[in-house]
Specification:
This protein is mainly alpha-helical. The protein is built from 9 helices and no strands. The chain has one domain: MetI-like fold (Orthogonal Bundle). Helix 1 packs parallel to helix 5 and helix 1 runs antiparallel to helix 7.
């Protein structure tokens, strides 16, 4: 591999990490509360509101059904409104965040459903409010599972951020397209793949380690 590519590879990696971190943080802030609502507003739950639950679930399913590449193109006007541009790392964060929110919501929902309902009933019998149950029972009990599920989302965002390079989103995907594909540089493609593999392995290892530390069982 040409030594001149190394600085570009480092820059692309930093852009990818920045895109994933910012998008994940923003999506988590929105996605976790939505996941909580999906569980707590269901039938026979502490905030039962079936019509609201069905509407929310339908919206989540609708957004999840849109392929990421189509979502990126479809929301370009919104991306320009938020980021001021439709290309570059800042612009790529908008569709990445929107795509991750329903994914996170469903993953959190899955983890919360694994909390034994006996614990919820015990908290109710002691006079706990719904908010107290969410904060002191649901989230603490489900946290190891939530961390494990969020690790999966981070890895998916890494792949999506690479896909964002096809429309000038920056990062490793953009480097692979511009230098590896368009300039017929297989060495750049291989280097990009190797960096992505290492990045994903580090994320998975870190996520597994954190989930184990949070697991009190």
């Amino acid at each position: 591999m040409d030594s001149n590519i190394t600085p570009l590879l480092v820059t692309a990696l930093s852009e990818t990490i920045r895109m994933v971190v910012v998008s994940m943080l923003a999506a988590t802030i929105v996605g976790i509360p939505i996941g909580v609502l999906l569980v707590t507003t269901a039938k026979h739950q502490i905030l039962e509101c079936v019509p609201f639950n069905r509407v929310l679930a339908s919206i989540i399913n609708a957004v999840r059904s849109i392929p990421f590449i189509i979502l990126m193109v479809a929301i370009i006007p919104f991306t320009r409104l938020v980021a001021g541009t439709s290309i570059g790392t800042n612009a790529a964060m908008v569709p990445l965040t929107i795509a991750a929110i329903p994914f996170i919501a469903r993953q959190v929902e899955t983890s919360l459903k694994e909390v034994p309902y006996g614990l919820i009933e015990a908290a109710l019998s002691m006079g706990a409010t719904p908010l107290q149950i969410i904060r002191r029972v649901y989230l603490p009990e489900a946290m190891p599972g939530i961390v494990a599920q969020l690790t999966t989302v981070v890895i998916a965002l890494v792949g999506a951020s690479a896909m964002a390079g096809t429309i000038g989103g920056g990062g490793l995907g953009d480097l692979a397209i511009r230098y590896g594909y368009q300039r017929f540089r297989p060495d750049v493609m291989i280097a990009t793949i190797l960096v992505l593999l290492v990045l994903v392995q580090l994320i998975q290892f870190s996520g597994n380690l954190l989930a184990k530390r949070l697991d009190k069982k």
